[in-house]
Design a protein that fits this description.
The complex is a heterodimer of chains A (about 270) and B (about 675). Chain A is of the alpha/beta class and about 270 residues long. In chain B, helix 1 crosses helix 2 and helix 5 runs antiparallel to helix 6. Classes of the chains: A alpha/beta (about 270), B alpha/beta (about 675).
């Protein structure tokens, strides 16, 4: 009995039941669809909280494919992605990891913040991201060819300053790249209103605040307020908090621990509300 | 005493008796004419007080008499005498100049008299600078001046404000003034040549005062629409709008009102002969200077953009360029200029994108002439080679020679910079000792934080021996044995120290401008850094750089990679002192060479500086130096070295992004933060 004959447990993958809310900002949907049609892997670049993950969810729904999302971190091993043996009673079984499950099911596998993962882990995706389109499961001596529906999507934040966390050129050059940024004010206000449950006027003020904080990038702030933070502030307002207090908690305090910078962010909150 | 007023010629005679020794004596006629307007009793009072003051100093007496008519409008006679005594006291203690300043600063005297606490520019400036940066599209510098105004690139604010009893309220006045002036630049006060518009009235000052009021109404409405909180602040700080302005309010506060609406109402007010009220909280307008600064900027931005477009169009060679379809238009939704060549979108250089934003803010559009590409010049943000500086002649051969990038030629100047390497002359170590004591608590904290970075040990699986069983390996072995295969004996996992494999080189600006505070902060920062880095075990080196023209670029060893952090290194940190200039490119090239030789996997070059690259003479200043530095950083990058710049140059926003690239620099708003921040920034960079 070789490892190949052992029972395989593969997680059941589900499709998104309802359409996730997503506001297109450019031709990203068309590019993603074209990449999916041509079986090309996609790289999403952009600051944190600007809608990358939501975009992937929306595309998975639109293409009618299951979605597997893996939030990468520095303890992520190849086994965590590909799978491992388990003993159940006196039987040894193989449990597929999320990447393997996605390949088998023809799903979209989304590796979020790929630079957080260790370099020796990320090489496992290379054969999936070029013309081979196959996943090597070394432990089982198995090479799983990816069905046409399988799609690999990775994301990273180029504004991240660590020298140790850069995407290797050999990885980067296998992907079609889509650049994301905070949406234009009008679109962002629509997103904040819709996701945060506030009226248009409040959403516009929050977006204004977001823009002011983004002017401070590099002058004491690593990054300005993301759309996600603005949505959080909107949700707090929707829950009955005063707008200025909500903006202070969800935006000013979330962005910096430096007392001077916090003071400036508070000034900006007061400027808007 | 007769009730009749004294006439000018009589006053002149009386003043002459005690002011004849004053240097300002020649203007005594004018002074007499001013005092003629006062009632007799006040004339006598002024003469008495001035005569008393003249016994101390005739110049002060003259000043007191000159300011008297205005003062008596504001003070009681008792306060007036107190004001004079305060001025004479300062003269006794500090001499004439400070005494004159004290007497002129009536606001400060009143504030002190009423127990009001002023806010000072120096105190509010860091916070206000950050705030204005947050508001603004274009970087605006903050400087102190005698009154609040802006030339569209700098906001000038008074040294001290004491309008209210407590400092907090006075700080809000500063904020309000800064917002008013920011609004002048943001909402198009200087979109038309106001100086020309004002020239039609002989009473220019009056017209200007009205215009300042009209614009204050319009701008407050603009601010309130975009930033309601600030609109409320402006409304709260000002007096109610003067009666004469009421008919104009609706027009000025309209959604689409621009500066022309203000000029329109100005004509009506001037025609009606209305006298403008005294401004209470209205920033001044300086239309002449602002128009000149703005015009120069527009010309500069237009030229920058033309050149960039010319370079883009010519990028594929001149022969093809003629046949290609070239379009450049502003996308109104994003405010970005979209350039297409044969339908393909091309990216503009950073400097040109900034120029587009600046033009949009000044003109509301990109002028057509800016969109016609310039000749076939290679892309350079500004032009005209500068006169070469007088070169230093050195008696000994340089230790190294390095190329320098000349963006005018689009080529290197070979062997252009002469590098001399030496050690920093050691200090006595007292500064380092004090720093270690003073920051002992903080250093302990830092060490703990750095230990946490290092302490993330890794589990290594499938080992022949180790402290734990590797479950994955064991299951496989059981499985192999069942299936008759040879099971592996690598069944253990053990903890290993996380190998960071990182070398960092800190490049310390030792230019003349770092003298004093900055130099102290740099040395303190290095002490903290070394203490923390010792915990981390990364390989690190520290070098200083300075120079005086291309023929004497000095590199100073403070700590090399091979040096231990010991007494001699500490003495060298102690000895870091401000020297000459900052020719940055060559320093980067030399230090890159040292860093590239390190066997680490990750290499990081961190620069501590207080301003842009600059050298003696004006050749290296400005674009040339920035372009050379940028090139040197690119060369470093090609050798696998990441660069990061920590600077306290708050006007750095305009060149740092271009020079360093986004996400590769930090601007600290206060030099005092340097010691506390550097180690933390390093920790983040290498997390």
């Amino acid at each position: 009995m070789t490892p190949r004959h052992l029972r395989i447990i593969t997680p059941e993958l589900e499709r998104l039941p309802t359409e996730p809310y997503y506001q297109p900002v450019g031709d990203e949907i068309a590019i993603f669809q074209a990449a999916a049609q041509k079986r090309l892997p996609v790289l999403l670049k952009g600051p944190t909280g600007c809608g990358k993950t939501r975009f992937v969810e929306y595309m998975a729904w639109k293409l009618g494919r299951p979605l597997v999302t893996v939030a990468c971190h520095d303890d992520l091993t190849t086994a965590d992605l590909v799978g491992r043996y388990l003993i159940v009673g006196d039987e040894t079984v193989w449990l597929d990891g999320p990447l393997t499950a996605a390949v088998r099911a023809g799903a979209i596998c989304y590796l979020d913040e790929i630079v957080e993962a260790r370099k020796d882990t990320t090489v496992v995706i290379h054969p999936l991201a070029d013309s081979r389109r196959a996943l090597a499961v070394d432990k089982r001596g198995e090479l799983i060819p990816a069905p046409p529906e399988f799609m690999l999507v990775i994301s990273y934040n180029p504004g991240y300053q660590s020298v140790l966390k850069e995407i290797k050129p050999s990885t980067r050059q296998r992907f079609v790249a889509l650049e994301f940024d905070y949406p234009a004010a009008e679109i962002e206000a629509r997103i904040v209103a819709s996701e945060g449950g506030v009226d248009e006027a409040t959403a516009q003020r929050l977006v204004k605040l977001g823009q002011l904080t983004r002017n401070l990038k590099g002058a004491g702030l690593d990054e300005g307020a993301s759309t996600r933070l603005l949505v959080h502030a909107a949700q707090l307002i929707d829950a009955g908090m005063a707008p200025a207090a909500a903006a202070r908690a969800a935006v000013a305090r979330a962005l910096s621990d430096d007392p001077d910078m916090t003071q400036t962010l508070d000034d900006l909150v007061r400027a808007v509300f | 005493m007769s009730a009749r007023k004294l006439f000018a010629h009589e006053l002149e005679e009386l003043l002459d008796a005690f002011l004849f020794a004053s240097p300002s004596h020649r203007s005594i006629e004018r002074l007499a004419a001013m005092l003629e307007a006062l009632p007799r009793q006040q004339q006598e009072f002024v003469l008495r007080v001035a005569r008393g003051a003249a016994k101390t100093n005739t110049e002060l007496a003259y000043l007191i008499a000159t300011l008297a008519p205005e003062m008596l409008g504001r003070f009681s006679e008792k306060d007036f005498e107190a004001w004079v005594i305060a001025g004479l006291d300062v003269f006794d203690k500090q001499g004439l100049r400070p005494a004159i300043e004290t007497l002129r600063d009536v606001e400060a005297f009143l504030a002190a008299r009423e127990g009001r606490l002023p806010a000072k520019f120096a105190e509010v400036e860091p916070r206000l600078s950050r705030f204005v940066l947050g508001l603004s599209g274009r970087p605006l510098a903050l400087k102190s001046g005698s009154y609040p105004w802006t030339d569209t690139e700098t906001i000038f604010l008074p040294e001290r404000i004491a309008r209210f009893a407590n400092a907090e309220d006075n700080r809000r006045v500063y904020q309000g003034l800064a917002v008013q002036l920011w609004a002048q630049t943001r909402y198009g006060t200087f979109d038309v040549d106001l100086e020309a518009a004002l020239s039609q009235w002989p009473e220019r000052e009056q017209a200007l005062a009205w215009l300042a009021h009209l614009e204050a109404v319009r701008l407050e409405a603009c601010v309130a629409r975009d930033l309601p909180g600030l609109g409320a602040l402006l409304a709260e700080l000002r007096e109610p709008w003067p009666e004469a302005l009421h008919p104009a309010l609706a027009d000025l506060q309209g959604e689409n009102a621009d500066v022309r609406v203000s000029l329109d109402w100005l004509s009506r007010l001037m025609a009606a002969g209305a006298v403008p009220p005294a401004p209470t909280f209205i920033a001044r307008l300086e239309p002449g200077i602002a128009w000149r600064v703005r015009s120069e900027r527009i010309a500069r931005d237009t030229e920058t953009l033309k050149k960039a477009l010319g370079a883009l169009r010519g990028a594929a060679g001149k022969r093809e360029a003629d046949g290609r379809e070239f379009t450049a238009e502003v996308n109104t939704a994003t405010g970005e200029l979209e350039v297409r060549i044969d339908g393909q979108a091309v990216q503009l250089p950073e400097a040109a994108r900034t120029a587009v934003q600046s033009l949009l803010q000044d003109l509301g559009q990109v002028p057509p002439e800016a969109l016609s590409p310039a000749g076939e010049a290679p892309w350079t943000p500004d032009d005209r080679p500068k006169e070469g500086a007088r070169e230093m002649v050195n008696s000994r051969e340089p230790d190294h020679r390095y190329d320098e990038w000349d963006y005018h030629r689009n080529a290197y100047r070979r062997g252009w910079c002469h590098v001399y390497v030496s050690d920093v002359k050691p200090g006595d170590g007292a500064f380092v000792r004090e720093t270690r004591q003073r920051y002992a608590h903080f250093i302990a904290q830092l060490k703990r934080r750095f230990e946490a970075v290092r302490g993330e040990d890794r589990m290594l699986g499938r080992q022949v021996e180790g402290e734990e069983i590797d479950l994955d390996a064991l299951i496989e072995a059981v499985n192999d044995r069942k299936s008759g295969a040879e099971p592996s004996t690598r069944l253990f996992s053990r903890r290993v120290r996380n190998e960071r494999s990182l070398a960092a080189l800190f490049m310390i600006d030792m230019s003349g401008s770092t003298k004093g505070w900055v130099n102290d902060a740099e040395r303190e920062a290095l002490v903290m850094l070394c203490e923390a880095l010792e915990k981390l075990g990364d390989a690190y080196a520290i070098y200083g750089f300075s120079g005086w023209t291309r023929t004497r670029c000095d590199i100073y060893r403070i700590k090399d990679f091979a040096d231990r952090y010991d007494e001699s290194v500490r003495a060298r940190i102690d000895g870091i002192e401000a020297k000459d200039y900052t020719r940055m490119g060559v320093a980067i090239r030399h230090l890159t060479r040292l860093l590239a030789a390190q066997p680490a996997r990750h290499k990081l070059l961190v620069t501590l500086s207080d301003g842009r690259p600059d050298d003696f003479g004006d050749e290296y200043r400005g674009t040339y130096g920035i372009e050379d530095t940028r090139r040197a950083l690119q060369e470093a990058r090609e050798q696998g070295i990441r660069s990061y710049c920590i600077t306290i140059d708050r006007q750095g926003a305009d060149y740092l992004k271009h020079m360093m690239g986004p996400a590769a620099y930090t601007v600290l708003d206060d030099v005092k933060k340097l010691p506390l921040k550097v180690a933390d920034i390093y920790r983040k960079l290498t997390a």
